[in-house]
Amino acid sequence: MKESGRKHGALAPCAACKLLRRRCAQDCVFAPYFPADEPQKFASVHKVFGASNVNKMLQELPEHQRRDAVSSMVYEANARVRDPVYGCVGAISSLQQQINSLQTQLAVAQAEVVHMRMREFTSSSNTGAMDMAVNQDNMGESLWSC
Amino acid sequence: MKESGRKHGALAPCAACKLLRRRCAQDCVFAPYFPADEPQKFASVHKVFGASNVNKMLQELPEHQRRDAVSSMVYEANARVRDPVYGCVGAISSLQQQINSLQTQLAVAQAEVVHMRMREFTSSSNTGAMDMAVNQDNMGESLWSC
Q1: In chain A, is it the N or the C terminus that has fewer CB atoms within a 10 Å radius of its CB?
Q2: What is the reported pLDDT for B131?
Q3: Mutual orientation of helices A51-59 and A63-82 as an angle, nearest 10°?
Q4: A62-72 pLDDT per residue, tens
């Protein structure tokens, strides 16, 4: 597992403990995910969720899920900092609009395919009928030529 | 503006003040958005963002944007309670997958339309050539009949 720039032994504080001005313990819950060289990551989640909530949420998860949880919290927090009214719900709403638009375009294209297949089918049926008619004419001609 | 079930004068506490066990002031920032009869809304945002962060975020916004901000925070908080690892970032990821799938289906359908148009065009060009040939035959016939 990556030690995230943390110097064990020297106890250089992680970004979280540095911001919270507290001693960074060997088993600090933040240290693996908030390295000292990326202070903005913790600053965002601290501003939006609060350090104690982040701590609690991490403690409630098994270790193998914590990295993903931190990534999603950082994403959410950054979205809320950028857009304090809608946060990442704004992104959800815009993706849903995009889905609606794509579904409409897809329905139009699929309807066009069906329409063209029908026309192609009708036209090939007519050609078949014409071919039959031509064959009947040829039969007539061959009868006259007898 | 809806008073959200709050009884002015009687000072019945809003859901936030009730949960935080504090006096609900006449100008309480939570009261218009967290009515006493919907305690779960505040419980979720309190658990995920923390009451003081929600308070701060609301104070930093003009009043006409606060209702939307509360709705998006409640949505985000509920998503995080349901899915503590991915929260509403899980929804974003699933919507993005849906968009990728729709874009692929749309590209296939549009390619089929183009392909069918090309075939239709080629077939109508051939029919045109056949028509010309038929017309030339007719001309031949009419010459003989003269």
Answers
A1: C
A2: 56
A3: 150
A4: 999 999 999 99
d(CA B17, CA B13): 6
- Quick: pLDDT tens for A72-107: 999 999 999 999 999 999 999 999 999 999 999 999
> Reduced to 3 DSSP states, what percent helix, strand and coil does chain B have, rounded to the nearest 5?
70, 0, 30
Residues A16, A42 contacting (CB under 8 angstroms) = yes
d(CA A41, CA A43): 6
Instruction: Give this complex's ipTM.
Output: 0.75
Which residues of A make CB contacts under 8 Å with B? 47-50, 52-53, 57, 60-61, 65, 68-69, 71-73, 75-76, 80, 84-92, 95-96, 98-99, 102-103, 105-106, 109-110, 112-113, 116-117, 119-120, 123
What is the 3-class SS of chain A, one letter each residue?
CCCCCCCCCCCCCCHHHHHHCCCCCCCCCCCCCCCCCCHHHHHHHHHHCCHHHHHHHHHCCCHHHHHHHHHHHHHHHHHHHHCCCCHHHHHHHHHHHHHHHHHHHHHHHHHHHHHHHHHHHHHHHHHHHHHHHHHHHHHHHHHHHC
Q: Residue A38: what residue type?
A: E
- Which residues, at least 6 apart from A17, have a Cβ–Cβ distance to it below 8 Å? A23, A24, A28, A30, A31
DSSP class of residue B86 equals T
Sorted by sequence, the CB contacts under 8 Å of residue A105 that are 6+ apart come out as B106
- Do A120 and B117 lie within an 8 Å CB cutoff? no
Residues from chain B that touch A75, judged by Cβ atoms under 8 A, are 89
Please provide residue A119's backbone torsions phi and psi, each rounded to the nearest 5 degrees. Answer: -65, -40
Task: Give the pLDDT score at B130.
Answer: 56
Do residues A22 and A14 lie in contact, with contact meaning Cβ atoms separated by under 8 Å?
no
pLDDT at B48: 96
